Amino acid sequence: MTATDTPGAQPLYHGSKADLKPGDLIGPGYASNYGGRKPAAYVYLSATLDAATWGAELAVGDGPGRIYIVAPTGPFEDDPNLTDRKFPGNPTKSYRTRDPLRIIGEVRDWQGHPPERLQEMRDHLARLKALGVEAIED
Predict the structure, then answer these.
(1) 138, part of any domain
(2) pTM as predicted
(3) Which of 25, 32, 45, 129 could connect to 100 by a Cys-Cys bridge, CB 3.0–4.6 Å?
(4) Are 16 and 47 in contact (CB under 8 A)?
């Protein structure tokens, strides 16, 4: 499915620390933000600001978190790291694609998670890393 297939489709987002501008492309092949930081086979997107906020807050890098409005350049599918294992039915509206995402704009007025909730998530991810749990990339 693609957002451009449906007139009036809701916006899609990508959270990152990369400093990008409209027209830039985000694609797979860069070091993942999670696990062993292997080159990612997919690029991730969401139809919810909350999921994109987690991406912006947890991304590796020194810059501020950023949330971009994106347009997929090819098909995308449910993200099995969230949908099948944690949230059946994809209520987080989280997706992945092997094709680049084109930056359409940036959300500048997003709210981050409370510091204690953000630390809980960082601790959870550290536990997964220590256990050797990697993102599903098949």
Answers:
(1) no
(2) 0.80
(3) 25
(4) no
